[in-house]
Amino acid sequence: MAAEGAPPFFTESIIFLAATVVAVPIAKRLGLGSVVGYLAAGAAIGPFGLGFLGSGEDVLHVAELGVVLLLFVIGLELDPQKLWKMKRDIFGLGTAQVLLTGATLYSIGHFLGYSTKLSLVAGFGLALSSTAFALQILQERGQLSSAYGQRAFGILLLQDIAIVPLLAMVALLAPDEGPSTGSEVAVEVATIVGAIGAVILAGRFLASPLFSFLAASRAREIMLTAALLVALGSAGIMHAVGLSMALGAFLAGVLLAESSFRHTLEADIEPFRSLLMGLFFVAVGMSLDFSILTENLGLVAAGVLIVMLVKGVFLWALTRGSGSSNSDAFRVAVTLPQGGEFAFVLFTAAISAGFLPYKTANLLNSIVILTMLMTPLACLALDWIAARLKKSGVENPAIETFEEATPTVLVIGFGRFGMMVGQILTSEGLEVRAIDNRPDRIAYARKLGYKVYYGDATRSDVLAAAGAGKAALVAMCIENDRVMSQSIDLIRGNFPNALVFCRATDRAHALELTQKGVDYQIRETFESSIAFGKAALESLGTPIDRIAQIEEDVRIRDEERLALQLEEGMFAGADRLHAVTPRRRSKDAVSDDKSD
User: Fold this and answer.
1) Whole-number Cα distances in Å, 550 to 59, 209, 507, 525, 542
2) What is the CATH number of domain 56-175+189-389?
3) Less Cβ crowding at N or C end of the chain, within 10 Å?
4) Where in this chain does the record put each RCK N-terminal domain (predicted)?
């Protein structure tokens, strides 16, 4: 009961936040991951725990938006070409896993005496893994871009698609409903195709112009609003025709994966995704009925063991048989053996259809939740075994990652200077990713074939989404000294392994960058001035070898002067200049330093 005058759900929000603040750090300290902490928090405060809150069903409806935003962010990381490369994992490996696991679990249920309808729903419902749970584990471990992480994601994506025919199966099994007519089926198929086409057309031709228009306003909150509108709007269109909301958001993300705004969209949505995903797992934990669990402990424990064992064996065998290494096959097997959130959807539909008893559905839900709780323990067990094997001298094959997942160089600022840097790097075959905050400049660079993305260099979340954490080198080609200084501080604080190369606008800026400890800096006009002077000397008849000596002398004197200025201030080292006395220096050298 909320306090008088308090906003709706105020007390509930306080309880949610307090429970997660306590449970999640403890779970992470024990090595179980944040998801187990959220589940434990939900079980503790729910109606079957301490009873602080009632049913978690209302919360779950809101929290499911976290799964939607998660799939949107994942879609942003997969461009259509990369997704096409995964077709074998999605439609081959994923389909085989669902069919084989579902058929086996159905056979076990039928053998134990359960009805055909109940066994079908339970078997294929438990064959689906948790997209939210598994992807959270992969992201926490930094393995989503690894070879086995991509294969696991392909299986999860097919399972999200599979919920559509499984819900249709429930409708066909319903005792009081006859089969649909041919015209009804045709209308339904046409509606689904039309919805998918609408999302594709909007994502392909409308989203990028919209974000370009909004980016020109430099209003971050409007960009965030538009990002949520695209993700949730696509999910809503799919939901309206009976498809998975998460699938619609994923499709929108894939269509924007080649957009220049993908990194900013990912950074903007990430806080909402993380919060709602946590709320989702809390709501799932609240639905764990301890009374039913204790009354049927043996049956539930056997169900958990059978589900995880059957799914694990098929996942290992299928991934191993389709080309994965033994270690990767085991990693997939221990990442995806749990039941999933779509099982709750399927069981609820079966209850409404009238052939799945409520108590049986609660038992199945308990099995799903406990398999979620057991999955991190399975991952820890595999890590322990791998560590023991490594210690005994048995090395496991290294996990290979997709080349697209790790950019070699991140270029920040893609004007004339940054574009020339990018041209030199790409000529050597290096992978280059660039961000800029001017839509016109981005559009021009993309027409020339460069991958440039919209992003604010003073936001660490945007830098992370753009790949700063994986880049071997960050090239700072920004024209604004203040922005560059803020960005360098963020990179040094959050991505210390990256080399930082900087473009200095003048001598004072070069001194500031040197004091910041960047790995390399160069004044943009210094080299062009050297080239200009050499060309002038050559035109005036100076021998080539003499020009080389002059250049070397000028460079040495400039380095000595910079060293003195770092120690003694801007006016030091005037004696290192050719034909300039200290008296002349005091009058006009400051303006020279500001422009060189």
Assistant:
1) 75, 53, 21, 18, 10
2) 1.20.1530.20
3) N
4) 406-522
Alpha carbons within 13 angstroms on the beta-carbon side of residue 162 total 29
pLDDT (0 to 100) of residue 464: 82
Q: Which of 554, 551, 552 is nearest to 579 (CA)?
A: 554
Tokens of residue 121, six digits:
């729903």
| Nearest CA-CA partner of 364 in 389, 341, 347 | 347
CA gyration radius for the chain?
A: 30
Q: Model confidence over 213-254: pLDDT tens digits?
A: 777 766 667 777 887 888 888 888 877 777 667 777 877 887
Distance (Å, rounded) from C-alpha 292 to C-alpha 524? Answer: 72
Could you count the other beta carbons within 10 Å of the beta carbon of residue 371? 25
d(CA 474, CA 311): 43
User: Which pTM was predicted?
Assistant: 0.58
Cα 300 to its chain centre, rounded Å, is 34
Q: Which amino acid is at 151?
A: R
| Per-domain boundaries in the chain | 56-175+189-389, 404-595
For residue 238, the SS3 value is helix
- CA dist 391 and 397 (Å) reads 14
Mean pLDDT, range 335-352, rounded to an integer? 80
Given a contact cutoff of 8 angstroms between Cβ atoms, the answer to whether 163 and 121 are in contact is no
Query: Rounded to whole angstroms, how far apart are CA atoms 490 and 498?
Result: 12
Would you tell me how many other CB atoms lie within 10 Å of the CB of residue 271?
Answer: 12
The length of the chain in residues reads: 596
Distance of CA 73 to the CA centre of its chain: 6
Residue with tokens 């399927």: 346
How confident is the model over 366-375, as a mean pLDDT?
84
How would you class 177 by CB atoms within 10 Å of its CB: exposed for 0-12, middle for 13-18, buried for 19 or more? exposed
Question: From CA 166, how far away is CA 170, in angstroms rounded?
Answer: 6
The structure tokens listed for 42 are 């939900």
Q: What's residue 396's pLDDT? A: 43
pLDDT at 57: 63
pLDDT of residue 180: 52
Distance CA 226, CA 210 (A): 8
Read off the amino acid at residue 496.
P
Beta bridge partners of 432: 409
Give CA–CA dist 251/263, Å, rounded: 17
Non-local CB neighbours of 12 within 8 Å, separated by 6+ positions: 2, 53
**C-alpha dist (Å) from residue 196 to 234, 347, 357, 542:** 9, 26, 35, 71
CATH class, range 404-595: alpha beta
* DSSP type of residue 437: S
Measured from the Cβ of residue 53, the count of other Cβ atoms closer than 10 Å reads: 20
